């Protein structure tokens, strides 16, 4: 083969891999030199609920409704609970119906922080549960359904700088659940226990908030790593238009 052609071919191949992946055109762009970059991000992110619902492959985001979490076991120890819950197929609905309420975008520091609300998250899960609720033994196995009142989360993502260090991207997430309606089928004393759970729903919601923060963190981390490997933060938020 002609050397010149070879060089051109190699050059194109190299270029294709170096050139940043293209963001879909429906994603609004926010630029670092925009004084209102935070507001820009909030309105951009909040315009994408339906796209997030069906997935955004270019961002490494899989379809989000429903979202099935990995199996996990939760221990709840508090003044009113002493519970061990083994869960399978923790399935969330309406995760895509988020609203960002504040944001602080700092591409140069590789940091993003802010607050996001989930107004109407629902979930169902196969569970095995044993322990005590307000000193009463509680136990059983079956399907549990949840309807959450507003869940408010504060987040901080840090160390989002370059592809090589994406494994060390930092994520802090603290969520507060205001209230939750619960329905456990398969509990012993099912009716009474459900009524009791429901009566203490606000307490239960606040007790389980840290556990849910950890679940959400486990869901978000792999996505953030994938996103970071595709785009350094400074590429998602280019310096100027
Ligand atoms: C959860 O606990 C059950 C019962 O103790 C165990 O069989 C299962 O492997 C645990 N699952 C996880 C994900 O830790
Ligand atoms: C829990 O309470 C809500 C209203 O507060 C009610 O709609 C729901 O049916 C109750 N669920 C159970 C399992 O008792
Ligand atoms: C709880 O769920 C079961 C099964 O889905 C349903 O038959 C029952 O009516 C529900 N109870 C309440 C109070 O919502």
Fold and architecture overview:
The chain is of the alpha+beta class. The protein has one domain: Super Roll (Bactericidal permeability-increasing protein, domain 1). The chain has six helices and ten strands. The protein has helices spanning 3-18, 37-46, 49-54, 190-199, 201-230, 233-236, and strands spanning 67-69, 72-77, 81-93, 99-106, 111-118, 122-133, 136-148, 151-158, 170-177, 180-184. Strands 1, 2, 3, 6, 7 and 10 form a six-stranded antiparallel sheet that branches. A hairpin with a 4-residue loop joins β4 (99-106) and β5. The longest helix has 30 residues, at 201-230. The radius of gyration is 22 Å and the shape is elongated. The model is unreliable at 8-19 (pLDDT under 50). This is Haemolymph juvenile hormone binding protein. One of its GO terms (cellular component) is extracellular space. Keywords: Signal. Residues 1-20 form the signal peptide. It holds the Pfam family JHBP.
